[in-house]
Design brief:
By secondary structure, the protein is mainly alpha-helical. It contains 5 helices and 4 strands; from the N terminus they run E-E-H-H-H-H-H-E-E. The C terminus is likely disordered.
Length: 179
Amino acid sequence: GAVVASWSQPFQGSPANPLSVTEFFDAVDRPDLAASSRRRSTVKWSLVAAGAATATVGAVYVLLGGDSAGKCDTAYTTTSSGYSTCLDQATASDTKRLTTGLVISGIGTAVLVAALFIPTNPASPQEAYDMAQRHNRKLRESLGLPGDATQRGAPGARWFARLDAPGANLGGVSVGAAF
């Protein structure tokens, strides 16, 4: 399999402070992408909450239905002519309630699961990497630092080695080390 998407944890400053996706886009002067990420996150978690609530309502509807057949026991004797009719109606009512509740729960569960797959990051990993590189390059220029902060001997230099195998069948494994 090929790697579909990969997102590393962005950091800022020294010591490296972790940034959320929206903080990253704000830091690289892309408020449009930060706003898009916030909207996507709001939609995603609203759908998750709505799906969970709907699934719960369906389950509660089934569970609070009670035993309709038990009402026949109190209204009729088991030998009376109306008992059989009452029991048939009660069974049909219970079946309808069970089916309705399970359908409602199923719809809620489907919405919840589908919402979990909504991506909140509007940029690909490569686009985010390029944005970070441009931002860092501009920052180094504005501070009068050398163009490549990873040059040997540069103050605070951090070397990063990374092994990606997007074409190999490694299940999207990425190994990295900073030193």
